[in-house]
Each structure stands twice: as C-alpha cells, then as structure tokens.
Write a structure and sequence with these properties.
With 177 residues, this protein is an alpha/beta fold. The chain is built from 5 helices and 9 strands; from the N terminus they run E-H-E-H-E-E-H-E-H-E-E-E-H-E.
Length: 177
C-alpha cells in the first residue's frame, strides 16, 4: 500500500477557498503542523475519489462520521479509516445512546458540510459546543493518513499520532469486526 505523498502534481493553491478550508488552515498553522492543507484539482466527495487522487489506500483516508447524542443533542465525531465501518453499539459505550445526524445537524454542530468535515477548525452555530471527538485505532495501521480540510476539495496529511496531538481526542476501538 502506498504511504508516500504523491500529491504535488495533482494539487493547486487557488486564490479563492472556502471558509471551512481557511479555518482548518489556521488551526493547523496555530499548532505548527508541518503539512498545510492542500486543495485538490478534482473534487474528493467520496473516499475512493480522494484515495485515487492522492494515490493512497482507501483506509488512509480518515473519514469523519458524525452522530447525534440522544441525551443532549450534542455532536459526536468519530475519525476512522474509510475501509472500516463504525459499530454504533461500541461507540455508545463511550457516549450513551446515539442517533443519526442529518446534513443540517452536521453543518450546525461542526461548521462543515458533509464531505468536508475536518477533525479540527470547528465553527458550531448558535453557541453549540464543538463535537466530542474519538479516533478509532484502525488508523494506526498506516504511517500517513489524510483527513478532510473543511471542503470536499481540501485535505491534509498527518500521522495517526499527529492526529491525536492535533485534536486531543482519545483513541478507541469502535469498528465492526
């Protein structure tokens, strides 16, 4: 499986970017992350599209799965490898009962639209709290992973250990067997 960075020839830095992309760029810069987000020349709305453009394995794409916690209507965000599926029952041992989050809920609680939800740079609407984050251990199979950077065309690279450092999220095992 490829783990290097073949992106240089497939990315560009446009003059106009999305607000979400800029928030992620600022959050990465504030934490002195070594890799600025990149803007892909083609949309990466699906994980497979992102993996193909980046030349990496599907599991190296860190998906952001948002749930709605039933007890208080807050957002729960799991960052996991795209080649695995989140087991909601396992996650609920950490969060309590969960429900599905629709596109409006995701946007209101993260500040990002589905397809571009980043693990940092949140801008919740109306004073809502930022999502409670969890990182699934499935990502630690890879040396390098890629996460959304606030827009379907934006991504950034890191190691799984850097993801933990950037977010402060606990590492858990919540994938289906």
């Amino acid at each position: 499986m490829p783990t290097s960075n073949p992106v240089a020839a497939t990315t560009t830095t446009p003059e106009i970017r999305s607000e979400g992309f800029e928030r992620v760029r600022a959050a990465l810069s504030a934490q002195a992350h070594a890799h600025a987000p990149v803007w892909l020349t083609s949309s990466a709305r699906s994980a497979q599209e992102a993996a193909d453009v980046l030349g990496v394995a599907l599991g190296q794409i860190a998906k952001s799965v948002v749930f709605r916690r039933k007890g208080d209507e807050s957002a729960v965000l799991v960052i996991a490898a795209w080649d695995r599926r989140v087991d909601e029952r396992k996650l609920q041992t950490h969060t309590g009962p969960l429900g599905r989050a629709d596109a409006d809920f995701v946007k209101a609680r993260t500040g990002f639209s589905i397809g571009g939800v980043s693990p940092l740079g949140f801008a919740p609407a109306d004073g809502a709290a930022a999502p409670q984050l969890f990182i699934d251990e499935s990502l630690f199979r890879f040396d390098i992973i890629w996460a959304a950077a606030g827009h379907p065309n934006g991504v950034f690279q890191m190691t799984p250990q850097q993801l933990v450092s950037l977010t402060g999220a606990p590492v858990v095992e919540v994938m289906q067997s």
